[in-house]
Amino acid sequence: MNGKKIAILIISIFWFVANNCATVPWKCVDGDACNAIKEGSVISQYGHKYNGGLKNGIPDGIGSVEFGTGRWFNIYINGYAIGSPIHGSAGKPGDRYEGGVGIDKYEDIQLNGKGTFFYKNGSKIEAIWKENKPEGKGKIFLANGKTLEGNFYDSGWICLTGDCKNGFGKRIYRNCATLEKGNFVKGELMKGVHVSNEYEFFDGEWVLEGKFKRFISGISRLGRKMDTIDRMRQRDNPKAQYTEVAKESIQCTEYID
Protein backbone atom coordinates (compact mmCIF):
# COMPACT_ATOMS: atom_id res chain seq x y z
CA MET A 1 0.00 0.00 0.00
CA ASN A 2 1.52 3.32 -1.07
CA GLY A 3 1.76 6.47 1.02
CA LYS A 4 -1.26 8.12 -0.61
CA LYS A 5 -3.56 5.18 0.18
CA ILE A 6 -2.29 5.04 3.78
CA ALA A 7 -3.02 8.76 4.21
CA ILE A 8 -6.55 8.31 2.81
CA LEU A 9 -7.15 5.38 5.19
CA ILE A 10 -6.00 7.37 8.23
CA ILE A 11 -8.20 10.33 7.26
CA SER A 12 -11.18 7.98 6.78
CA ILE A 13 -10.69 6.48 10.25
CA PHE A 14 -10.56 9.91 11.89
CA TRP A 15 -13.65 11.01 9.94
CA PHE A 16 -15.54 7.93 11.12
CA VAL A 17 -14.55 8.48 14.76
CA ALA A 18 -15.47 12.16 14.64
CA ASN A 19 -18.83 11.59 13.03
CA ASN A 20 -19.98 8.43 14.73
CA CYS A 21 -18.33 8.17 18.15
CA ALA A 22 -19.68 11.57 19.19
CA THR A 23 -23.18 10.11 19.15
CA VAL A 24 -22.46 7.80 22.08
CA PRO A 25 -25.52 7.99 24.38
CA TRP A 26 -24.06 9.72 27.44
CA LYS A 27 -26.01 12.21 29.52
CA CYS A 28 -25.22 14.74 32.24
CA VAL A 29 -25.07 13.81 35.91
CA ASP A 30 -23.69 16.85 37.69
CA GLY A 31 -24.78 20.25 36.45
CA ASP A 32 -22.70 21.59 33.59
CA ALA A 33 -20.84 18.34 32.95
CA CYS A 34 -22.12 18.23 29.38
CA ASN A 35 -20.22 21.40 28.65
CA ALA A 36 -17.11 20.38 30.57
CA ILE A 37 -13.86 20.24 28.67
CA LYS A 38 -11.68 18.71 31.41
CA GLU A 39 -13.49 16.47 33.88
CA GLY A 40 -16.83 15.50 35.30
CA SER A 41 -19.41 12.74 35.56
CA VAL A 42 -21.77 11.40 32.93
CA ILE A 43 -23.97 8.33 32.76
CA SER A 44 -24.47 5.81 29.95
CA GLN A 45 -27.72 4.52 28.51
CA TYR A 46 -27.21 1.42 30.68
CA GLY A 47 -27.02 3.43 33.89
CA HIS A 48 -23.27 3.09 34.43
CA LYS A 49 -21.67 6.22 35.87
CA TYR A 50 -18.41 7.50 34.41
CA ASN A 51 -15.98 9.76 36.30
CA GLY A 52 -12.96 11.27 34.63
CA GLY A 53 -11.76 13.26 31.66
CA LEU A 54 -14.40 14.82 29.42
CA LYS A 55 -14.46 16.62 26.11
CA ASN A 56 -17.71 18.35 25.18
CA GLY A 57 -19.52 16.18 27.73
CA ILE A 58 -18.22 12.87 26.34
CA PRO A 59 -15.64 10.61 28.09
CA ASP A 60 -12.22 11.51 26.77
CA GLY A 61 -9.00 10.71 28.65
CA ILE A 62 -8.43 8.56 31.74
CA GLY A 63 -11.61 7.68 33.58
CA SER A 64 -13.47 5.01 35.48
CA VAL A 65 -16.89 3.41 35.13
CA GLU A 66 -18.71 2.12 38.20
CA PHE A 67 -20.21 -1.38 38.08
CA GLY A 68 -21.93 -2.13 41.38
CA THR A 69 -19.24 -1.66 44.02
CA GLY A 70 -16.34 -1.95 41.58
CA ARG A 71 -14.53 0.60 39.45
CA TRP A 72 -12.95 -0.10 36.08
CA PHE A 73 -10.40 2.31 34.67
CA ASN A 74 -9.69 2.86 31.01
CA ILE A 75 -8.51 5.39 28.46
CA TYR A 76 -11.34 6.92 26.42
CA ILE A 77 -11.35 8.73 23.09
CA ASN A 78 -14.54 10.44 21.97
CA GLY A 79 -16.72 8.31 24.25
CA TYR A 80 -15.19 4.94 23.44
CA ALA A 81 -12.81 2.91 25.60
CA ILE A 82 -9.48 2.03 24.06
CA GLY A 83 -8.33 -1.53 24.77
CA SER A 84 -9.46 -3.73 27.65
CA PRO A 85 -10.72 -2.20 30.92
CA ILE A 86 -8.28 -2.16 33.81
CA HIS A 87 -9.58 -2.88 37.28
CA GLY A 88 -8.59 -0.27 39.85
CA SER A 89 -8.81 -0.19 43.62
CA ALA A 90 -7.50 3.27 44.45
CA GLY A 91 -10.78 4.74 45.65
CA LYS A 92 -14.51 4.34 46.07
CA PRO A 93 -17.45 5.36 43.85
CA GLY A 94 -17.69 9.14 43.88
CA ASP A 95 -13.97 9.71 44.49
CA ARG A 96 -11.79 11.28 41.80
CA TYR A 97 -8.08 11.63 41.07
CA GLU A 98 -6.04 14.05 38.99
CA GLY A 99 -2.36 13.49 38.41
CA GLY A 100 0.29 10.95 37.53
CA VAL A 101 -0.65 7.33 36.96
CA GLY A 102 1.18 4.14 36.04
CA ILE A 103 0.43 0.50 35.26
CA ASP A 104 1.81 -2.30 37.44
CA LYS A 105 2.78 -5.83 36.40
CA TYR A 106 -0.82 -6.97 36.83
CA GLU A 107 -2.01 -4.27 34.39
CA ASP A 108 -3.79 -2.39 37.17
CA ILE A 109 -3.72 1.39 36.93
CA GLN A 110 -2.01 2.87 39.99
CA LEU A 111 -1.59 6.40 41.28
CA ASN A 112 2.06 7.26 40.72
CA GLY A 113 3.57 10.74 40.76
CA LYS A 114 2.31 14.14 41.81
CA GLY A 115 -1.47 14.28 42.07
CA THR A 116 -4.60 15.23 43.98
CA PHE A 117 -7.17 12.73 45.26
CA PHE A 118 -10.67 14.19 45.71
CA TYR A 119 -13.00 12.38 48.09
CA LYS A 120 -16.75 12.31 47.71
CA ASN A 121 -17.23 14.10 51.06
CA GLY A 122 -15.39 17.20 49.78
CA SER A 123 -11.96 16.55 51.29
CA LYS A 124 -8.82 16.05 49.22
CA ILE A 125 -5.14 15.07 49.47
CA GLU A 126 -2.30 16.69 47.53
CA ALA A 127 0.82 14.53 47.57
CA ILE A 128 3.35 12.47 45.69
CA TRP A 129 1.74 9.06 45.14
CA LYS A 130 3.42 5.69 44.85
CA GLU A 131 1.42 2.53 44.21
CA ASN A 132 -1.85 4.25 45.25
CA LYS A 133 -0.34 5.56 48.50
CA PRO A 134 0.68 9.12 49.43
CA GLU A 135 4.32 9.41 50.45
CA GLY A 136 6.58 12.20 51.69
CA LYS A 137 5.47 15.79 52.17
CA GLY A 138 1.83 16.53 51.39
CA LYS A 139 -1.37 18.29 52.41
CA ILE A 140 -4.80 17.17 53.59
CA PHE A 141 -7.71 19.51 52.94
CA LEU A 142 -10.65 18.45 55.11
CA ALA A 143 -14.28 18.99 54.19
CA ASN A 144 -14.69 21.39 57.13
CA GLY A 145 -12.12 23.76 55.58
CA LYS A 146 -9.18 22.82 57.80
CA THR A 147 -5.80 22.21 56.12
CA LEU A 148 -3.20 19.83 57.56
CA GLU A 149 0.38 19.45 56.34
CA GLY A 150 3.09 16.93 57.07
CA ASN A 151 5.00 13.88 55.89
CA PHE A 152 3.00 10.81 54.88
CA TYR A 153 4.22 7.40 56.05
CA ASP A 154 2.86 3.83 56.35
CA SER A 155 0.37 4.13 53.46
CA GLY A 156 -1.17 7.46 54.46
CA TRP A 157 -0.56 8.48 58.09
CA ILE A 158 0.64 11.98 59.04
CA CYS A 159 2.00 12.64 62.53
CA LEU A 160 0.48 16.00 63.48
CA THR A 161 2.15 16.56 66.85
CA GLY A 162 4.60 14.86 69.18
CA ASP A 163 6.14 11.41 68.71
CA CYS A 164 3.91 8.90 66.93
CA LYS A 165 6.52 6.13 67.10
CA ASN A 166 7.58 5.93 70.75
CA GLY A 167 6.02 8.65 72.88
CA PHE A 168 2.98 10.87 73.11
CA GLY A 169 1.62 12.10 69.78
CA LYS A 170 -1.33 12.65 67.49
CA ARG A 171 -1.70 11.29 63.96
CA ILE A 172 -4.31 11.24 61.21
CA TYR A 173 -4.89 8.74 58.40
CA ARG A 174 -5.54 10.21 54.95
CA ASN A 175 -8.68 12.42 54.93
CA CYS A 176 -9.42 11.81 58.62
CA ALA A 177 -10.63 8.29 58.00
CA THR A 178 -8.87 7.53 61.29
CA LEU A 179 -7.33 9.64 64.06
CA GLU A 180 -5.22 8.47 66.99
CA LYS A 181 -3.75 10.42 69.89
CA GLY A 182 -2.06 9.24 73.06
CA ASN A 183 0.90 7.05 73.98
CA PHE A 184 2.57 5.14 71.14
CA VAL A 185 4.94 2.17 71.37
CA LYS A 186 6.73 1.07 68.19
CA GLY A 187 4.19 3.00 66.13
CA GLU A 188 1.14 1.44 67.83
CA LEU A 189 -1.32 3.41 69.98
CA MET A 190 -1.35 1.71 73.39
CA LYS A 191 -3.24 4.26 75.51
CA GLY A 192 -5.45 7.09 74.30
CA VAL A 193 -8.16 7.84 71.73
CA HIS A 194 -8.75 6.01 68.46
CA VAL A 195 -11.48 7.29 66.10
CA SER A 196 -12.52 5.63 62.85
CA ASN A 197 -14.85 8.14 61.21
CA GLU A 198 -18.54 7.22 61.61
CA TYR A 199 -17.52 3.69 62.64
CA GLU A 200 -15.71 3.27 65.95
CA PHE A 201 -14.50 5.33 68.91
CA PHE A 202 -12.16 3.97 71.59
CA ASP A 203 -10.79 5.76 74.65
CA GLY A 204 -8.69 3.49 76.84
CA GLU A 205 -5.84 0.98 76.81
CA TRP A 206 -4.64 -1.83 74.56
CA VAL A 207 -2.17 -4.69 74.92
CA LEU A 208 -0.15 -6.40 72.21
CA GLU A 209 -0.61 -10.14 71.83
CA GLY A 210 1.76 -11.29 69.14
CA LYS A 211 0.88 -9.32 66.00
CA PHE A 212 -2.54 -8.27 67.29
CA LYS A 213 -3.80 -5.56 69.66
CA ARG A 214 -6.56 -6.10 72.18
CA PHE A 215 -8.65 -3.34 73.80
CA ILE A 216 -8.62 -4.19 77.52
CA SER A 217 -10.15 -1.21 79.32
CA GLY A 218 -12.03 1.98 78.62
CA ILE A 219 -15.00 3.16 76.58
CA SER A 220 -15.91 2.03 73.08
CA ARG A 221 -18.72 3.58 71.04
CA LEU A 222 -19.67 1.72 67.87
CA GLY A 223 -21.45 3.39 64.98
CA ARG A 224 -22.73 0.01 63.88
CA LYS A 225 -24.42 -3.06 65.29
CA MET A 226 -22.38 -5.05 67.79
CA ASP A 227 -21.36 -8.39 66.35
CA THR A 228 -20.33 -11.71 67.91
CA ILE A 229 -16.67 -10.67 68.15
CA ASP A 230 -17.61 -7.45 69.99
CA ARG A 231 -19.63 -9.42 72.52
CA MET A 232 -16.78 -11.88 73.04
CA ARG A 233 -14.36 -8.98 73.60
CA GLN A 234 -16.71 -7.40 76.12
CA ARG A 235 -17.15 -10.70 77.93
CA ASP A 236 -13.39 -11.35 78.10
CA ASN A 237 -12.55 -7.76 79.09
CA PRO A 238 -15.06 -6.58 81.71
CA LYS A 239 -13.23 -3.23 82.01
CA ALA A 240 -14.01 -2.45 78.35
CA GLN A 241 -17.48 -0.94 77.87
CA TYR A 242 -19.08 -1.26 74.42
CA THR A 243 -22.06 0.85 73.36
CA GLU A 244 -23.95 1.22 70.07
CA VAL A 245 -24.46 4.83 68.91
CA ALA A 246 -25.53 6.65 65.75
CA LYS A 247 -22.59 6.68 63.35
CA GLU A 248 -23.07 10.43 62.77
CA SER A 249 -22.00 11.01 66.38
CA ILE A 250 -18.51 9.63 65.66
CA GLN A 251 -16.71 12.38 63.76
CA CYS A 252 -12.95 12.18 63.32
CA THR A 253 -12.59 15.94 62.74
CA GLU A 254 -13.89 16.72 66.26
CA TYR A 255 -10.72 15.27 67.80
CA ILE A 256 -8.07 16.99 65.65
CA ASP A 257 -7.59 20.07 67.89
From TrEMBL:
The keyword Repeat is assigned to this record: yes
Cited SUPFAM superfamilies: Histone H3 K4-specific methyltransferase SET7/9 N-terminal domain
InterPro entries in UniProt: MORN (IPR003409)
Signal peptide range in chain numbering: 1-22
UniProt KW Repeat keyword: yes
Protein origin, superkingdom: Bacteria
UniProt keywords, alphabetically: Repeat, Signal
Pfam families (alphabetical): MORN (PF02493)
Protein name as annotated: Membrane-binding protein
